[in-house]
Amino acid sequence: MKKKTGCLLLVLVLLLSVTGCGDKTREKGEYQVFYLNMDITKIVPEDYNSTGATGEDLVMELLEQLESAPDSSKLRQTIPSNVVVKGIKSDGAYLTVDFSQTYKNMTVTEEVLIRAAIVRTLLQVPEYSLISFTVNSEPLRTLDGTLVGNMTTDTFVENPGAQINASMQSTIKLYFSNADGTSLVEETRVVTHSSSVSMEKLIMEQLIDGPKLEKSKATIPVATKLINVSVLDGVCYVSVDNSFQNQDQEIKEEIVLYSIVNSLTDLPGVTKVQLSINGDTKGYCRYTYELSKMYERNLDLLESNKTEGAQ
């Protein structure tokens, strides 16, 4: 196998008794605010009628509810009193919520449930389909340093009675640029991640996070937002926002492209990759490689292979 899945490290059970969470077809003004039970073992929705606000105003209104005590004495407020929402920022369908440093004081179990409750509550707002968290303007990371990245309504699996957000370890292979931007450098990494996150999404998030090895360079700008990753008939379709185009010009275009292609095609079931910018495949990766084409694995660009060929 091309990836190894480690043992289960953490099981968080999220029991949802109400279906339709995050359903954007609900009647106008009708939402659900998700709170934690007193044992901090699950999140529970309560119906809420908004004031009729939309967009960012509605997000702020729902955040105020998450910061307040719920009507039921069996539930606790979602966002702890010592955690401050410092602000929100929207960019199209993408929403960012910034928290104070005290957000990091939560236990792992508490943080995951709170994160799930916030995401499920805020992504009911019709204008938004992606959300990320920052702490003092820095991207949120797990305790082991893994970038949490963008979240959607599918990030937290809704399956009554089943495991949700079980933490697991996977060994993945990533490809970054060498120091001069002319070859690919392979990096094997063991990552602890949620079992509800697809391996394709995990690969892309780790590529955006950048290399851990010295003398390697990131091929994807860190500000790049991952919009969607899906696999159909062996083709992995990756959509990123236009921040991707702010590439390091010292890194060859083919190295940027094949760092993504080679990393994803290392996964079982992925044989080709097609990249798009905001879902649009009309342009180029930079200047030469057309986004409309599907690209297969190319190990000739590996620095080790180039060195061997020169001998």
Features:
four-stranded antiparallel sheet; 311 residues; 30% strand; elongated; alpha+beta; disordered N terminus; four-stranded mixed sheet; 2 domains
What's the gist of this structure?
The chain has 311 residues and is α+β, with helices and mostly antiparallel strands.
Question: What can you see in these coordinates?
Answer:
This protein is of the alpha+beta class. The protein folds into two domains: 17-157, no CATH class; 167-310, no CATH class. The protein is built from five helices and 15 strands. The protein has helices at 55-66, 108-122, 199-209, 253-264, 303-310, and strands spanning 10-13, 30-37, 43-49, 75-76, 85-91, 94-99, 130-135, 138-139, 163-178, 184-194, 216-217, 226-232, 235-240, 272-277, 295-296. Strands 1, 9, 10 and 11 form a four-stranded antiparallel sheet that branches. Strands 5-6-7-8 form a four-stranded mixed sheet, with helices on one face. Helix 3 runs antiparallel to helix 4 (253-264). The longest helix is centred in the middle third of the chain and has 15 residues, at 108-122. The two termini are 32 Å apart.
